[in-house]
Amino acid sequence: MRSTPSSTPSQPARHPKRCTPSSTNCTPRAVSDGGGRHDEASQQCSVVGLHPLVRDRSQPRCGPWPRLVRYQRGDTMMDCQGSARTDVTPSEQAASVADDQRSVFFRATGANRATALNVLKIPSATSGAPEKRLVLPNHEGSARPETDEQAHRLIASAPPSLDACPCWRVYLKPWHDGKGLRRAGVWYHALREGKDGQRSRSDDWICSPLTVEAISVDARGEAFGRLLRFPDVLGRIREWIMPMPLLRGEGLELRGALLARGLLFEPTQRQRLVQYLMHQVPKRQILQVPTLGWHEGRFVLPDTVIGGGEIRFESEATQPLDYAQSGTLEQWREQVAAAAVGNLVLLLAISAAFAGPLLALIQADHAGLHLYGDSSGGKSTALRAAVSVWGSPAMLRSWQATANGMEAAAAESNDTLLALDELGQADGRDVGAVIYQLANGRGKGRANVQGGTRRRAHWRTVILSSGERTVNAHMQADGGRYQAGQAVRLINLPAGERTYGAFDQIHGAADGAAFADALSAATQRLHGTAGRAFLHGLVGQQQEQTLSQAVLHLMACMSVTHGQAARVAKQLALIGTAGELATAAGITGWPAGSAADAVLDAYQLWQSEQGSGQTEDRQILESVRSFIERHGESRFAPRHATSAHPIRERAGYTEEDPTTGQVTYLFLASGLREALNGQDLKRGLIALARAGWLVKGRGDKHRLQRKIQGKNTNVYAVSLPDDVLDDGEASQA
After folding, report:
1. Side-chain half-sphere of 531: how many Cα atoms within 13 Å?
2. Cis peptide before 282 (omega within 30 of 0)
3. What is the C-alpha separation between 429 and 432, in angstroms, rounded?
4. What is the mean pLDDT of residues 191-220?
5. What is the reported pLDDT for 615?
6. pLDDT of residue 392
7. Which architecture characterizes domain 329-542 according to CATH?
8. In sequence order, what are the beta bridge partners of 644?
9. For residue 224, what is the enclosing H or E element?
């Protein structure tokens, strides 16, 4: 790790250098310039070695260079950097500090001629144990503790001697080759021998600075990669786990991936780039994980791991994810969270954002809220406030996304929040499948860029959605099939008819629009801090049992009457528990109980929207009512019609009571199945009978016979109450 005394001829010490610890009984007053032993007169400090640094021999011998002084203090072997002459050249200055100051300052301006590494072992101020600290002559500032591997890397960043070639070097800054400055980056130094037998070095630039930090491996020990670190074209430091299969062949896919992430390379050195990465085998190992969120009791984010540990997120995305931080937690609490006080919708939305990390802790798979109401009412603003818990407004997604895009968004939101705005932009025929997929947390298997099978994506997330209509109304308007299972996976909650649109309080703003604008602007400036603070309070706390009990306690405050209501209540209780936990941690600044009260109010609101019957029954009735309303005249023929009545895609017939005028719809089996919109026929008949809409036959049978056009025909007779078609009451579920 240092030059030997024989590597460079000793030079006369015009000005003996001093190592000046604060302890007066350990001061080497003079040092030998030849690397031999020198005993102090006091015999309390012994210099056992002096190693001159390597210098550029093409430069004139104009004075002594920095020295690495090794001396013994008590039983501890110490290394200390002596200072260089300040008058060596006008363009170079250097300074040394005492070994007990626990820092090293070394400045070299202009051309750097001292290229070796200075190694200092400085005793810790607390334990007294020596700490290894490194500083390069061309660096400035405090030294830092380093591993041996990092020390070797720093040593390797010095231009090599001829004996060291051929070799690779990574220069983080422009370097001097004795003739001029060369650009920073990865260089390949080859050895050339001329016709006269003289050896020389050739230097080839490969790419911008790129270091291989660690070997990465997945939890199964089957997928390997390398953790690469490099600055992109904007100067931002990027880390990326490179899958090892990208090194195969000519490395075309590798170069494309690096270019997409902002690395520059020399086109004529393409194969050398592959060779460089192939030859780097660092000792450090890390665990690569395919998703964000909880792993081995730690929480992985794109740029950090809450709880520490050698874990990194392996992402195929070329752009950094949107878990950005801006502003301080205190600013977010005062300008974003404070706006939620007294506002049911905002309290629910922000609490839902905190619920994501709790899913795994209470062994839940998802929670979902859909806020619906008139446009421009503030629903999107509520979603922006929720998103600000975790990152920038770019985390707010649109329902108008491809299946692949929605799957990627869900995976990136694992254990946090997936916010989807404007349900109306999605095709209602596809929404049902998307809801099931998001709630079930499993993606589709696809091929990856290496030609193999891409790992199937998995996620757990809280879904927060907005739209002008309920999910079922939007789906049915587009001809989609809405099922009760979707209703409890994404809970419809009205959010557009509060006092000021989606808001109950506007905290001194001129109106609801001004309040929404101010809150949206605040989320642009302030975001990403609350979620991380929340995670720091969760990691390592072993709160699983306590959290589960808190959720059950909040559920007990809700009047749960059937299985579907219990599923809704559990999701709302989880959201309320998350909000209260964030409040107790000092993150939201809300009064205690605010989040719990909000979810209790939300449950009552949901119950009032559902009525007393089960959701599935109501969806069946709504489907049949809607079908009759849309097709009652076009696809049903009068049973006793004397003339041919052309009907396309006949669903059935009608018969009218001559006394009351009540119309009964005689469904053919195929027509009723279509009207049930995907629900099981037997289940639909039970719901129709329970509501009193089904006219039964002999023996209480669901099906009866009618003579139609001279033939006995099996039909299902449905008679709607007078007020159902008039006001569409069933459609308000």
Report:
1. 34
2. no
3. 7
4. 90
5. 66
6. 95
7. 3-Layer(aba) Sandwich (3.40)
8. none
9. strand 224-231
Could you tell me which of 185, 199, 192 has the C-alpha nearest to residue 272?
185
Q: Both tokens of residue 476? A: 């049915």
Look up residue 307 and give its two tokens: 């709880």
And the tokens for 449?
Answer: 């860029």
Rounded Cα gap, residues 55 and 61, in angstroms: 10
The H or E element spanning position 200 is strand 199-207
- Long-range Cβ contacts of 602-608 (<8 Å, 24+ apart): 602/344, 602/348, 602/493, 602/572, 603/558, 603/568, 603/569, 603/572, 605/493, 605/494, 606/491, 606/492, 606/493, 606/568, 606/572, 607/559, 607/565
* Residue 228 to residue 210: CA distance in whole angstroms: 7
Question: Of all residues in the chain, what percent are helix, strand and coil, respectively (each to 5)?
Answer: 35, 25, 45
Distance in angstroms (rounded) separating the CA atoms of residues 436 and 153: 50
How many whole angstroms separate alpha carbon 530 and alpha carbon 522?
14
Q: What is the DSSP string of 278-327?
A: HH---S-EEEEESSSEEETTEEE-SS-EET-SSEEE----SS--S---BS
- 11 vs 185: CA distance, rounded Å: 34
pLDDT digits (tens, 9 = 90+) for 228-266: 999 999 999 988 999 999 999 888 999 999 999 999 999
Q: How confident is the model over 578-604, as a mean pLDDT?
A: 97
Task: Extract the tokens encoding 622.
Answer: 């709504």
Q: How confident is the model at residue 724 (pLDDT cuts 50, 70, 90)?
A: low
SS3 352: helix
Structure tokens at 493: 């909650």
pLDDT one-digit tens code per residue, 423-438? 999 998 899 889 999 9
Of 238, 275, 278, nearest in space to 259 by CA: 238
Q: What is the largest CA-CA distance in the chain?
A: 131
Residue 75 pLDDT exceeds 70: no
Residue with more model confidence, 555 or 401: 555
**Domain assignments of the chain as residue spans, ordered by start:** 5-151, 159-321, 329-542, 615-732
Tokens encoding 285: 């190992």
Q: Cα angle at 632 between 627 and 633, to 5 degrees?
A: 145
φ and ψ at residue 161, rounded to 5 degrees: -80, 170
pLDDT greater at residue 685 or residue 657: 685
Place of tokens 């008679």: 719
- The pLDDT-based confidence of 555 (bands split at 50, 70, 90) is very high
User: What pLDDT, in 10s, does the model give residues 468-495?
Assistant: 988 988 887 777 766 767 888 999 999 9
